[in-house]
Amino acid sequence: MPIPLIQVDAFSSKPFGGNPAAVCLLEGPRDQSWMQHVAREMNLSETAFLVPRGDGYDLRWFTPAVEVALCGHATLASAHALWESGRLAPDRPARFHTKSGLLVCMRKGGWIEMDFPSNPPAEAAPPEGLLDALAACPRFVGRSRFDWFVEVGSEQEVRSLTPDFGKLRRVEARGVIVTSSATSLAEDGFDFISRFFAPRSGIDEDPVTGSSHCCLAPYWRDRLGKDAMAGWQASARGGEVRVRVAGDRVVLSGQAVTVMRGELV
């Protein structure tokens, strides 16, 4: 039987912005190797697989190369796909059971709010090769549960980075977050900008990374003294992620738009 597949641009209000994710709507569990093959076929930064359960859905995320433990933009895309397809009533929360625990999404006007675990970075000595691969001069280097975290001195430094992905691939981590406070974007309401590199996970640069903002939000909250902020991920596609720190949780907010509907045969 054909399997519905929806492609969504997450963290964007218009097509071809933000971060694309494929959402595969399954009736029952499938083998992990099959899901990895599908993700490789989709060749997007993430493909999400949803299986209904009593109070929500089981959700797993795969890059073209590996399964990951947490993904923000594909969770946003999954919630959007459920509401848009009519599988979930617009006023009902989307509840996802994942490797990172229960994640709940709600619609708030034209935005989707996601309740994620906070993942602040702890200061750490950079591993061999990290700064050389980035060609960056850090103000701060830390390590979160998943990623290395580097603050540099200016927005322009973040934007102009051209990492050596061969060298970065040898750094042990899911990915590398590089960030600075916002300057040119401050008048538009943005507090910080970032980029995310994950060659070890099969993605040289991720366009917009929800899960990295679980690390960025508590970090910039401590730096700026604000619980609610807006971040801009400065990839070629670009995308806005609004964040609010609430204890050991981070509420991420973004928009999403469907760009393709099809079936796996």
Care to describe what's here?
The longest helix has 13 residues, at 72-84. The protein folds into two domains: 3-110 and 254-264, Diaminopimelate Epimerase, Chain A, domain 1, CATH 3.10.310.10; 122-247, Roll (Diaminopimelate Epimerase, Chain A, domain 1), CATH 3.10.310.10. A hairpin with a 5-residue loop joins strand 15 and strand 16. The protein is α+β, with helices and mostly antiparallel strands and 265 residues long. The protein has helices at residues 32-42, 72-84, 130-134, 155-160, 165-168, 213-224; strands spanning 3-10, 19-25, 46-53, 56-62, 67-68, 94-98, 101-108, 111-117, 122-123, 138-143, 147-152, 175-181, 192-198, 203-206, 228-233, 239-246, 249-254, 256-264. The model has no long low-confidence stretch (mean pLDDT 96). The chain is globular. The chain is built from six helices and 18 strands. It has an 18-stranded mixed β-sheet that branches.
